[in-house]
Amino acid sequence: MVAADWVESEVLKAVPEALVEVIDLHGSGDHFHVRVIAELFEGMRPLQRQRMVLAVMKHHIPRPIHALDLKCMTPKQAETAGDTAFDPHGGGQGIHIKRINKQKRE
């Protein structure tokens, strides 16, 4: 079990200048929604963005992190991205939930 602050610090190792938002989806310290917003992502494809973050995070999957909903976007994309997170284990099939308990680094 890990804290959202720890997940944020790990993500910042991959993208130091990013704004990172981490939500512990179940309060269990192993299912997280992570939004990574960075100018650096401009011109990159979504998979390229995720690979940058996963290069650091893959060492923590499946333990201590079991599920990671990762959204990597530019600041412009974040303005229109909406206010939901995806819980991959919610309701058995996965559900979209309202983002709450945001933790932001500014």
Automatic annotation (TrEMBL):
Coiled-coil annotation reads none
The residue ranges flagged as biased composition, category Basic residues, are: 96-106
This chain belongs to the protein called BolA family transcriptional regulator
Native source species: uncultured Poseidoniia archaeon
What family, per the record? Belongs to the BolA/IbaG family.
SUPFAM superfamilies hit by this protein: BolA-like (SSF82657)
The record's annotation in InterPro entries points to: BolA (IPR002634), BolA-like_sf (IPR036065), BolA/IbaG_stress_morph_reg (IPR050961)
Q: Where is this region: Disordered?
A: 79-106
List residues traversing the bilayer: none
Pfam families attached to this UniProt entry: BolA
